[in-house]
Structure formats: structure tokens, C-alpha cells
Design brief:
This protein is of the alpha/beta class. It has a single domain, classed as LigB-like (Protocatechuate 4,5-dioxygenase, Chain B), CATH 3.40.830.10. It has helices spanning 18-30, 51-63, 110-114, 124-128, 131-134, 137-143, 159-169, 189-204, 219-231, 244-247, and strands at residues 4-5, 43-46, 74-80, 89-91, 96-99, 102-105, 120-122, 148-154, 175-180, 185-187, 236-243, 254-262.
Amino acid sequence: MKSIREPAVSGTFYPAEKRTLETMVAKFISTAKCESFSLRVRALISPHAGYVYSGPIAGIAFACLKNTADSIKNVVLLGPAHRVAFSGLALPSVSYFKTPLGLVPLDGNASQRLADLPFVCIMDDAHRDEHSLEVQLPFLQQVLKDFTMVPLVVGAASPEHVCSALEALAPGEDSVIIVSSDLSHYLPYARAVKMDQNTARSIEELDWSRLRCEQACGCHPIRGLLLYAKNHGLRAQTIHLANSGDTAGSRDRVVGYGAFIFH
């Protein structure tokens, strides 16, 4: 019997009806302008708000995978914990994640590869209602079609711990690392733009020590990714910055979104 993590935010963050969701995600990706289509993307950062707000920016991030999509067979997906407070990183016990577009199989060997790390645990509660990973899945299903996934919700974890988990998973040429994160939260438009530009500079410089949690809700997984990227000679590139004031909200209090790739 299949053990399945059911969708928690379909019908709220994104459409629950399959055809509507397919059409929406396909449009976000097909209309995206990315000058880095030819690059072999090893990792990316994508936002995780409701699609009406952050979908266009997520589409830009995932469009950068199109050129090498056929070679990507495994996804290491990390996102911050919004619902459950804990330390370390959490795997689920299930075998599949479900969206209106179908089932995503999990890498059955991931737990074994992470078993010796004391800061990684199995915690279904951390995954059950968490949206940060779930909202990335329809984009992955649209671009990659056939892949397995290692989903990690990241709590209060050091950059070294996140980096160690990535090292243990040893993502190769057939893998991509995805970190799910929004940027600044609920600032006036001009202040948000300035903060997000500063955040982008820290990411491009792989300077995890300058990144603060008020700059990005996914600060813990991003810091770990920056350390991993530095250790492996990856370059970070900002593809697009925007916020909810640019997409579907007022400019009084906005949430920032960024599309970043590592190659």
C-alpha cells in the first residue's frame, strides 16, 4: 500500500483542478525570459507564495531547467518550516507526495544516506501542512516529468548542518538542488526593493554570514546552500527580483520574491 503525503494547500495557494493548474504553470514557464537557458543549473532558489503572487517569478526560475530537463532524474528539495518549530532537518516517512498533477516518488535511499547525521530526523508533522515544498512540485512536474525527490523541511539548522546533509546526499550531474524561499516580508515597496537587492548581493557573493532571517524566510536552507556552493565552486546568478507589489498586491506591505540559479 502506497503511503502518500496528500496536498495541503491545493485550492488555496494554487488551483486544485488539474487542467487549470497545468495551464497556469505552463504559462508561467513558457512566458519566462531567462538568458541562462543553456547553463547546466546545479541548484536554484524559487519563491513559495500563492501562485497569483509569486508564480511568475517561480516560472522564471524553473524555465532555466528546461534545456537540461531530460538529464535531471533526482531533486533535492529544501524549504523552511512554517508550521512546526524544531531543530535540524526533517524527512517524511511517506513514499510519495501528491499534487493535482499526480504522484511524485521519493528517493527510497535518502534516509539511509542521511542516517548517520544526528540533526536529520523523520518527522511527518513537519511536512503535513507545510506549503514551502508543496508549491514547487507542480513546476517540477511540468518541467521534469519523470524524477524522484528528497524533501527536507529545514528548521533551526546551521549552515554547516544543511551543507553536510547535501554532501551526504551527493547530488550528481543527474540531480538539482532546489531551495524554496520568499525574500523580505511586509515592508513598504521601496524598502523591500532595497532589502531584496542586498539579499541578492549576498547570494551572488555566496556570503551566507550576511544573510539574516528577516531577509528571507528560507534563510536556513539558503545559508547551507551558499556554503555548499562555495565548497563546490558554483557561481550564483540573480535571474529576477520582484515582489507582490509588482504582481498582484498593493505596494503598502509587500513580500519579496527572487529567482536565483547556481551553475
